[in-house]
Amino acid sequence: MMMPRRKDRLYCSFCRKSDREVTELIAGPGVHICDACVRLCNGVLEGKPGDGFAGWDSLTDRQLLGALPPSEASVEAARRVLQTQVGVLRSRGVSWEKIGAALGVSRQAVWERFS
Ligand SMILES: [Zn+2]
């Protein structure tokens, strides 16, 4: 039997709050980020301590275990985006060397990973 999908509920990929618990949820390819996490990120970039997400240690075991499947799904989605982007570049004749350079790895490493 298929797992029931909570199709109308989206979650912040960083703090795991649902779209109902946050003011704004911004979508990227396979990921979402809430307004509080954006503010936290801005604070980090400005070198200020954040007042939003208290860190993974603040979650209970159950909350953290519940956060694993959506996190893994985000990783899988990001991997598919990366694979697709590399596929498009390869179809345009862009060399493995250039793709490797963009990712900061060797031509050999990128070839083994994506070919
Ligand atoms: Zn968030």
- Major beta sheet summary: 2 strands, antiparallel
The average pLDDT score comes to 84
The percent of residues in helical segments reads 40-55%
SS elements, strand count: 2
SSE order in H/E notation?
EEHHHH
Q: Segments where pLDDT lies below 50 for 5+ residues?
A: none
What is the straight-line distance between the termini? 34 Å
How much beta, percentage-wise?
Answer: 5-15%
Using only C-alpha atoms, the radius of gyration works out to: 18 Å
User: Which molecules are bound in this entry?
Assistant: zinc ion
What is the global morphology? elongated
The helix tally amounts to 4
How are the strands of the largest sheet arranged?
A: 1-2
Coarse structural class: mainly alpha
Notes on the structure:
The chain has four helices and two strands, in the order ββαααα. The chain has helices spanning 35-45, 61-91, 96-103, 107-114, and strands spanning 25-28, 31-34. The protein has 115 residues and is mainly α. The longest helix has 31 residues, at 61-91. Strand 1 and strand 2 form a beta hairpin. The protein has a two-stranded antiparallel sheet. Zinc ion binds next to strand 2 and helix 1.
